[in-house]
C-alpha cells in the first residue's frame, strides 16, 4: 500500500490547519534568519571591542613605559642635583661663607619643594605628545 494515493476527503479545517502550519514554518524560518543575522552582528561587535581593548592596553603600556622612564630619569637627575647642592653646602660650611650657605640652603629647600610629578600633571599634553610621532622626547 505504500506509494499508492490515499483517497481521503480534505476538509476546509484540514486545509486551514495545513496553511497555518506552513505559515508558522515560514515565520519560524524568518525568525531564524533574523537570529543568524543578529548573531553575526554581535560577533563583529565583539571583535571590534576586542580590537579596541588591545589598542587601549597598548596605549596604557606605552604611557606606562614613558612615565617610568621619565620618573627614572627625573629622580636620577634630582639625586645628582641634591648631591651637588650638599657638596656646595659642605664647601660653604668649610669656608665659613654664610652668605653662600644661606643661598644654597634656600635653593635646597625650593628644589625639595618641587616635584617631578608636576610636569606630568598635564596628562592631556603628555597624551598629545604620545600621539605625535614627530615629537622628540628628551630624557
UniProtKB/TrEMBL annotation:
Protein name: Tll1780 protein
Superkingdom of the source species: Bacteria
Organism of this sequence: Thermosynechococcus vestitus (strain NIES-2133 / IAM M-273 / BP-1)
